[in-house]
Design brief:
- There is one protein chain.
- Helix content is 0%, strand content 55%.
- It is mostly beta strands.
- It has a domain of 147 residues.
- It has an 18-stranded mixed β-sheet that branches.
- The termini are far apart.
């Protein structure tokens, strides 16, 4: 089996007058361009953009800077500061799976990645990490902690989770698979094709649920739960709002705390 591995380590050093800047790009060949591939991209500190294109390979563009760098100052030992931590990026390809990742916590990086349209994605970031995805046909999984999530012109499925930031997804076509979306501080704003058939499960603590679709909202009944070990039981009122669109279908789960849930119809 054909196997290709690319490793790239980037090191940036601050100059004497300000922040060091490091930018560049390089293509990553696929083992079999005729077959579907997958991208796994992760940053500890920074933002990621992924776009589907007519390419037969993957193009990785990067930019980063040593934000801790500044004009040299003498410390109590009489030493001058020259640089902070280094910037690093590792890229590999194996059997059409491309991995792009950086373990740096101190130096912010931005990635712009172009992939073939028919690609699956697993994209994540942690600190100050907005994620933007567009024009992809496949299964998309997005996770960040401090950042917004935006996905446009998606044909397939999306699972997206963040803590601080809005989640905004626009579908051209929807796969018949379960999907879920969550954020603590932010809106969940989803746009679906008019012919959507789905069962929705929604919960917001401090916001509203708004929809452009006609929905069959199901009655919220108390649920009795029994502990078979102790013999005790309790009654639980499920706070989820459950509804069907187009007669029902795969479950789409949406949950936030501070923010609204908005369900839009494409073209309306």
């Amino acid at each position: 089996m054909k196997k290709q591995v690319l490793i790239l380590i980037l090191v940036c050093v601050a100059g004497l007058t300000g922040l060091a800047q490091n930018t560049g790009e390089f293509p990553v060949p696929l083992s079999d361009p005729a077959k579907r591939g997958k991208l796994k991209a992760h940053l500890n500190y920074g933002s990621i953009t992924v776009r589907g294109t007519a390419r037969k390979d993957v193009l990785v563009k990067y930019s980063g800077k040593d934000e801790s760098s500044r004009k040299p100052q003498e410390n109590p030992d009489g030493l001058k500061r020259i640089s902070g931590g280094s910037l690093n990026l590792e890229v590999s390809e194996n059997n059409n799976e491309v991995k792009v990742q950086s373990g740096s916590w101190s130096n912010k990086m931005s990635l712009e990645i172009e992939v073939p349209v028919g690609f699956d994605l697993k994209v994540s970031s942690y600190n100050d990490g907005d994620i933007f995805i567009s024009n992809v046909q496949g299964e998309v999984e997005i996770t960040t902690y401090n950042g917004e999530i935006t996905a446009q012109n998606i044909s397939g499925s999306v699972v997206a989770n963040t803590y601080n930031g809005d989640v905004k997804i626009t579908f051209d076509k929807v796969s018949s698979v379960p999907m879920s979306y969550s954020t603590y501080n932010g809106d969940i704003d989803l746009t679906f094709p008019a012919g959507l058939k789905a069962t929705l499960k929604m919960k917001t603590q401090r916001g509203e649920i708004l929809s452009a679709f006609d929905m069959n909202v199901m009655k919220n009944e108390p649920v009795q739960k029994k502990d078979s070990g102790s013999g005790s039981f309790k009654i639980v009122l499920d706070e989820w709002v459950k509804a069907e669109i187009g007669g029902g279908g795969p479950e789409i789960s949406m949950r936030n705390y501070n923010g609204d849930i908005k369900i839009r119809k494409k073209g309306s």
